[in-house]
C-alpha cells in the first residue's frame, strides 16, 4: 500500500494594506512555498483590484504570483472614495472589517500559522479563538520596533504627551551604537492628520506590546550585521531573515504596473552615470516641491530615471509630465512605476534619491547604491539616520527656511555624494555583507530555515 503524502502546512499571511507592506510579505510567501507550504495571502478588496489591474496592464491578467500562493481579499471597512493614504484611519477600521471573516477562514481552511504584519497585531486575538499560532513580521526596522516599545517611558518622562506631541525636544538613543533620534522625528510624529489619530496610534502601540511577547515568533526583514544592537532589545530572540530581495519579478505584489522601458533605457547609459529618484508609494509633493525636484534633476547634468506615480503630486497632470519629458529629451526618463530592484542592481545606476522607506533602504543596501536621503514621514527619518550616521552610505538633503528643497541643493548634494569615494566603498562593503547573510550558511538564511522548521512543528 502506497504511503500517504504528508499534508502541506497551511500558512495565512496578513499584510497591512499598503504597498510597502505587501511587497516584503509576498517575498516571504514565495520562500515559504518553495519550502513546501501552502500560503493564503490576504489582500483587501481594494488593493487586490489594483494588483489585478496592474497585471492586466502588463498583459499578465490571470498570472499567478507563485504556484502555492492563494489570494484572498476582504473589505477594508472604508468607502470607495476614502483616502487610503491616511494610514491611521485605514488601520483603525481593519479589525471590525476583517477579524470575523479571518476567523472563519482559519477554521474552514485548517490554517496552522498566521504570519501577521506588525501593523496588524490585533490579529493576535485569533490565537485565542482558533488556536492558530502567530508569527509577527516586522515590515520596518528592528530599531523602529524598539522605539515603539519605548513609548510608555517617553510619556512617563514627559518627553511626549499621550497624543505623541513633543513636550521636550530631546534626542533619544536607546543604545550607544544606534542613532540618536530627535523627538520631533520619531516615527509617529508625521503620521495621522490630527492629534486624535496620533493618540490612537500611540495607544495601539502600547496595547500591542503585550501581544508581541505572546507571539510565537518575531520575524525581521533586516540582517544582523546592521542592526545587532536593536535586535538585542526585542522582547524575544528574533528570526532575522533579510534583506528580502526578489529573485525574480513580483508583479503580483505591485499596485501599479512596472514600466520595463526603464531597464532598456538604462542599458543604453554609461556605467555609474544615472541618478535614480523614487519616493515610494505614499509620499506626496506639492507643485512647488515637484518643480524644484524636476529642475534639480536637470541641473545635475547627468542622465536620470525618475518615478512619478499617478498620485505623487497634487495639482500636476499628465500634460505637465509630457512637457517635462519633451524638455529633457533623452537625458531623463520619467516612468509611473519601476521594477526597483532591477533598477538598483543595474550597473548604470550611480545613486538613489530616496524617501528611505525600509523596503527601499534594504534594496539600496543589498545592491550597494549610495543614498541621497529625502524622508517623508514615519520610520523614514530613523532610516536616514542609519544610512548617514551609522552606515555612512549616504547624505541628507536639506530644505531651506520655507521647507523647500531647492534645485541648487539637489545639484550640490548629488555632486558631493558621487564625489565621495568613502561613501561608495562603504556602500559596496555593506552590499557584500547583505549578500553574505542570505546565501547558504549566511545568518539570515539560517534563520529562515529555523522559521521553516518552526512552522512545520505541530
From TrEMBL:
Name under which the protein is recorded: Glycosyltransferase N-terminal domain-containing protein
Ranges of residues in domain Glycosyltransferase N-terminal: 8-50
Highest taxon, organism lineage: Eukaryota
GO MF term (any one): transferase activity
Keywords of the record: Transferase
A Pfam family per the record: UDPGT
InterPro entries tied to this protein: Glyco_transf_N, UDP_glucos_trans
Amino acid at each position: 500500500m502506497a504511503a500517504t503524502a504528508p499534508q502541506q502546512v497551511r500558512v495565512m499571511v496578513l499584510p497591512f494594506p499598503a504597498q510597502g507592506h505587501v511587497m516584503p510579505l509576498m517575498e516571504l510567501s514565495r520562500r515559504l512555498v518553495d519550502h513546501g507550504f501552502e500560503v493564503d495571502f490576504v489582500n483587501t478588496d481594494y488593493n487586490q483590484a489594483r494588483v489585478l489591474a496592474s497585471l492586466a496592464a502588463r498583459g499578465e491578467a490571470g498570472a499567478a504570483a507563485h504556484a502555492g500562493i492563494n489570494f484572498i481579499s476582504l473589505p477594508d471597512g472604508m468607502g470607495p472614495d476614502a483616502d487610503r493614504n491616511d494610514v491611521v484611519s485605514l488601520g483603525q477600521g481593519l479589525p471590525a472589517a476583517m477579524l470575523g471573516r479571518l476567523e472563519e477562514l482559519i477554521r474552514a481552511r485548517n490554517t496552522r500559522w498566521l504570519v501577521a504584519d506588525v501593523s496588524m497585531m490585533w490579529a493576535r486575538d485569533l490565537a485565542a479563538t482558533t488556536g492558530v499560532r502567530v508569527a509577527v513580521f516586522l515590515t520596518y526596522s528592528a530599531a523602529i520596533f524598539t522605539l515603539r516599545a519605548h513609548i510608555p517611558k517617553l510619556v512617563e518622562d514627559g518627553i511626549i504627551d499621550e497624543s505623541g506631541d513633543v513636550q521636550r525636544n530631546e534626542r533619544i538613543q536607546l543604545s550607544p551604537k544606534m542613532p540618536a533620534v530627535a523627538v520631533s522625528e520619531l516615527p509617529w510624529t508625521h503620521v495621522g492628520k490630527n492629534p486624535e489619530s496620533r493618540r490612537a496610534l500611540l495607544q495601539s502601540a502600547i496595547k500591542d506590546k503585550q501581544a508581541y511577547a505572546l507571539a510565537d515568533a518575531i520575524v525581521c526583514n533586516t540582517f544582523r550585521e546592521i542592526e545587532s544592537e536593536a535586535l538585542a532589545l526585542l522582547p524575544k530572540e528574533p528570526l532575522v531573515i533579510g534583506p528580502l530581495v526578489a529573485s525574480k519579478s513580483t508583479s503580483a505584489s505591485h499596485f501599479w504596473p512596472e514600466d520595463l522601458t526603464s531597464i532598456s533605457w538604462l542599458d543604453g547609459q554609461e556605467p555609474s552615470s544615472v541618478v535614480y529618484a523614487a519616493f515610494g508609494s505614499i509620499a506626496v509633493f506639492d507643485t512647488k516641491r515637484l518643480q524644484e525636484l524636476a529642475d534639480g534633476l536637470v541641473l545635475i547634468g547627468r542622465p536620470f530615471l525618475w518615478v512619478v506615480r499617478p498620485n505623487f503630486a497634487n495639482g500636476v497632470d499628465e500634460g505637465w509630465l509630457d512637457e517635462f519629458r519633451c524638455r529633457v529629451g533623452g537625458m531623463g526618463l520619467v516612468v509611473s512605476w519601476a521594477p526597483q530592484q532591477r533598477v538598483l542592481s543595474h550597473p548604470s545606476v550611480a545613486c538613489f534619491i530616496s524617501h528611505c522607506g525600509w523596503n527601499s533602504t534594504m534594496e539600496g543596501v543589498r545592491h550597494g547604491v549610495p543614498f541621497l536621503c529625502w524622508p517623508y514621514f514615519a520610520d523614514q527619518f530613523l532610516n536616514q539616520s542609519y544610512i548617514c550616521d551609522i552606515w555612512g552610505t549616504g547624505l541628507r538633503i536639506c530644505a531651506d527656511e520655507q521647507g523647500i528643497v531647492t534645485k541648487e541643493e539637489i545639484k550640490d548634494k548629488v555632486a558631493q555624494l558621487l564625489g565621495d569615494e568613502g561613501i561608495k566603498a562603504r556602500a559596496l562593503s555593506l552590499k557584500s555583507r547583505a549578500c553574505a547573510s542570505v546565501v547558504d550558511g549566511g545568518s539570515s538564511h539560517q534563520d529562515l530555515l529555523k522559521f521553516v522548521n518552526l512552522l512545520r512543528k505541530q
